[in-house]
Amino acid sequence: MTSDSACGPVLRFDRLVCEPARGLRRIVASGTVPEGGALVLRGPSGAGKSTLLRALARLVPIVSGRVWLAGRDMGEFSPPLWRRLVHYLAQRPVVFDGSALDNVLVPYRLRIFKDLPPPGRDRVVEAMTRLGLSDPAQDARTLSGGELARVALLRAVFAGPSVLLLDEPTAALDADTRRTVLQFLGTWVKARPGRGLVLVSHVEEDGGAFSPVTAVDLHHNGTGAAP
Ligand SMILES: Nc1ncnc2c1ncn2[C@@H]1O[C@H](COP(=O)(O)OP(=O)(O)OP(=O)(O)O)[C@@H](O)[C@H]1O
């Protein structure tokens, strides 16, 4: 896996020490998310990949270490603003009542982002179509696992993040759909300056969809390092 630092880092974490819940085994890692590209988080099951992602989103306790977004320390942001800009997408998608389209727009329907104008319906439907979601009106509770994963991904994308933290976003997808999703993310991350991705993936080729790309290997003992 190559590393290319031609662009500056969007997100950087240095000797970040976090724990899944207070008092549990700690995870220690440092890494850099390149602008317009991705950091791929690798490691065996239980090594702490999801925990590290959740720590970067300020969803689990950070014991020590530092995190910067576009050069600004995490502490300079309120937690809600940070979580919007550094947006975590869980491994198991959450489904709400309503259609597939309603589900993409949930944060706006619930008025979580009061200061952000909702994206136009046409833009959302166009993105859904690009991801192979051909019926925006379909009841979300009838969507397959792979369709729901793509709905959840679009919900995250339309929340307006700078950095998307994606926990195995291609796990429920067949090879063709996986390529479509990776291509979509590759376009998204380059569409505006200041964007980056962090991706947990067990699929070696997933990282190859992005350039520049960096990696962190988390080990069984919870320590992580760039290879
Ligand atoms: N809330 C929690 N309470 C107790 N233990 C937890 C909690 N969350 C995670 N753990 C434990 O912390 C360790 C790291 O979990 P984590 O989900 O971060 O691993 P992972 O590398 O993402 O694994 P996988 O590849 O299987 O998803 C695991 O041993 C897990 O059982």
UniProtKB/TrEMBL annotation:
Keyword ATP-binding: yes
Entry keywords, A to Z: ATP-binding, Nucleotide-binding
One Pfam family per UniProt: ABC_tran
PROSITE patterns (alphabetical): ABC_TRANSPORTER_1, ABC_TRANSPORTER_2
InterPro entries noted in UniProt: AAA+_ATPase (IPR003593), ABC_transporter-like_ATP-bd (IPR003439), ABC_transporter-like_CS (IPR017871), P-loop_NTPase (IPR027417)
Molecular-function annotations in GO: ATP binding
Keyword ATP-binding among UniProt keywords: yes
Domain ABC transporter, residue spans: 11-226
PANTHER family: ABC TRANSPORT PROTEIN ATP-BINDING COMPONENT-RELATED, ABC TRANSPORTER DOMAIN-CONTAINING PROTEIN
Name of the featured protein: ATP-binding cassette domain-containing protein
